[in-house]
Inverse folding.
């Protein structure tokens, strides 16, 4: 893994210096060679950075690039992580009468395909108010889908690679 270590050392600290294409290539190589939980920690750092858009906007962007199955899986994980509040928050995506009390509804790929990515920004913001730890859940989910993470752009990728580099140094 010396090649991976050399690659990650470029991003230790600021993560600056690589062009957008190089960042995407480097991220792809790292994503294939680090555990998903480490990738999730890098994504959580990007979600929490003041150098990237707010979490809802970034999740909305990845949601828009997702397949209907990925969208449904993300919404179902989000609903499960929110507990009882999940039914109300996710119900807001599907119009009047969809919000229920109790367990969050199970969202199908067909339902998820009809959700506008812009709605997700508001849903994630509301979800964070109910459970600030939701960011970790979303990070873990999207770490399993690194192709979607690449859509976040160079600032997020540089932050992620920097955080992963820090993690690898301390492990």
């Amino acid at each position: 893994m010396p090649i991976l270590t050399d690659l990650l050392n470029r991003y230790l600290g600021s993560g600056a210096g690589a062009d957008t294409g190089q960042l995407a290539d480097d991220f792809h190589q790292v994503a294939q060679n680090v555990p998903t939980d480490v990738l999730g920690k890098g994504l959580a750092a990007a979600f929490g950075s003041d150098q990237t858009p707010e979490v809802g906007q970034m999740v909305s962007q990845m949601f828009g690039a997702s397949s209907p199955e990925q969208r449904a899986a993300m919404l179902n994980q989000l609903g499960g992580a929110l507990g009882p509040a999940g039914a109300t928050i996710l119900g807001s995506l599907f119009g009047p009468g969809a919000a229920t009390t109790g367990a969050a509804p199970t969202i199908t790929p067909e339902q998820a395909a009809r959700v506008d990515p812009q709605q997700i920004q508001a849903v994630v913001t509301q979800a964070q108010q109910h459970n600030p730890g939701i960011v970790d859940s979303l990070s873990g989910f999207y770490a399993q889908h690194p192709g979607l993470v690449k859509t976040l752009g160079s600032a997020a990728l540089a932050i992620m690679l920097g955080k992963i580099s820090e993690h690898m140094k301390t492990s």
Observations:
- The mean pLDDT is 87.
- The chain is about 70% helix and 0% strand.
